[in-house]
Design a protein that fits this description.
The protein is mostly helical and 67 residues long. 78% of the residues lie in helices and 0% in strands.
């Protein structure tokens, strides 16, 4: 319940206030910050899974993980 109460202001700011300010503000707020180190590896793997799907899974089963 406490988590939900904390989530309400974040949603109001992201979808309510920023849309009132302008579409550009909402787009900038959704910007994903650059990642570093092992975060980058996980992000790239997630992107590959999304982009290539089963083909990437088959490739990783043959090759293995790189971290």
């Amino acid at each position: 319940m406490n988590a939900f109460i904390l989530l309400i202001p974040m949603l109001l700011i992201q979808y309510g206030l920023l849309n009132i300010v302008g579409r550009e503000a909402a787009r900038r707020a959704r910007f994903f910050p650059p990642v570093e180190g092992k975060e980058r590896l996980a992000f790239e793997e997630r992107w590959c899974l999304k982009e290539f799907g089963d083909e990437y899974r088959d490739y990783m089963n043959k090759v293995g993980r790189y971290f």
